[in-house]
Amino acid sequence: MVENMNILNKKIRPLSLFYLCFVMYTISNALTLTNFRNNESLFIYPIYLYVRVICAIILAIIIISNKQIRIKLIFLFPLIIFLGLSTYFSESWNLALLVLFAIASDGVDVKKIAKILIIIYGSILALTSLSARLGIIPSYPIKGDGGLVRDPMGFTHPNTFSSFVVVVCCAFAIMRFKKFNLLDLLVQSFGFFLCWSIAYSRTSSICIVFILVISMIFSLIKSKNIHKAIYTLMAFLFLIECIFSLYLMIHYTSSSPWMSNLNRLFSGRLELANYFYSNFGINPFGFDYSKIQIFYNGYTSFVVDNAFCHIILESGYIVAVIFYIMYFLAIIRARKNGLYSLNAYGLILYVPVAFCEMSAFLVCFNFALLSVFKLVGKSIQYSDDHVLKA
């Protein structure tokens, strides 16, 4: 990456601008998922809309200022066109910003991003939960299976609260790559407690158990063959999850006992995905759900937690299929080369998360997505360090 760039006659390091964008986007996006957004005087959603535009402009400047990246844009041009069309038709900036962040991330410190996320999401978890308890913002508990009360702790939904906890646990595991000890056990156990006992989110709890197990394996077992086998398993688990998710989205029926039981296990996620597919279908460049009225089982907006289904319904099947392929190839390439960088490690941690949390495919939650292009690209320098290199 270039050493610096001249903006308003001041030399500013591109990496500093990148981190600034990531912090602004992460905070503004996170606050839209809390009930602070109900306070109109805070202007949370309007600020978020402006932040998206500002980040897109700054990231574009970083990319254009880097000669090496400009050359690579020739190969990414078709993807950029598809993303532009998807953003236009769906009004969703998620994938467009993901690609901009990923392309501009040359030289970014993965552990620094993890630390940023822990601080931001940990602070928002504490602030939102405390504000809800003090009555500063509302919190709307819902009843789950068996009459259990699921507390969202001031977030828009109990699953949203638990997804924030999962992100903190993932980021902590990445910061502690191959250094598992009692501290890691305590942090992951506390995350499990929050998801299981407060939000009553079985899926998020399972995800944290997975993170715990993978962290232990990579730290305590030094065999490269075992590590390679895990990458192989996770690559094909990703593929199976993708196919299975889309199959259930299309063919789900409550009259099928096994589908109905699975839907209950995953808190109605399968039925929701099928509802949006059955009523709105899938389009080549996505669909803007904000322009229609939705009234289904208490939901009044587009809510599909399965990340595979969410991305294809919202952003369209063209960019969705490209994304699925890129994610799969990134893991395969890391496995094939037998090198286990933090970049690829972060991707496999989110594989089971994707089946139950759409946040798995959002860059402000799953920052391992920053490395997808680099892992797939032929010029990537693989290592176990924590710097993304082109």
Describe this structure in words.
There is one protein chain. Helix content is 63%, strand content 3%. The protein has 16 helices and 4 strands. The chain has helices at residues 14-31, 44-64, 67-90, 94-103, 110-133, 158-175, 182-198, 202-220, 224-251, 257-265, 269-280, 307-315, 317-337, 342-349, 351-354, 372-376; strands spanning 5-7, 10-12, 142-143, 149-150. The protein has a two-stranded antiparallel sheet with strand order 1-2. It has a two-stranded antiparallel ribbon with strand order 3-4. β3 and β4 (149-150) form a beta hairpin. The longest helix has 28 residues, at 224-251. The protein is globular and about 55 Å long.
Keywords:
390 residues; mainly alpha; two-stranded antiparallel sheet; 4 strands; 63% helix
Helices, strands, pairings?
Blueprint: E1 5-7, E2 10-12, H1 14-31, H2 44-64, H3 67-90, H4 94-103, H5 110-133, E3 142-143, E4 149-150, H6 158-175, H7 182-198, H8 202-220, H9 224-251, H10 257-265, H11 269-280, H12 307-315, H13 317-337, H14 342-349, H15 351-354, H16 372-376
Antiparallel strand pairs: 1-2, 3-4
Helix pairs in contact: 1-2, 1-5, 2-4, 3-4, 5-6, 6-7, 6-8, 7-8, 9-11, 9-13, 12-13
Structure summary:
With 390 residues, this protein is mostly helical.
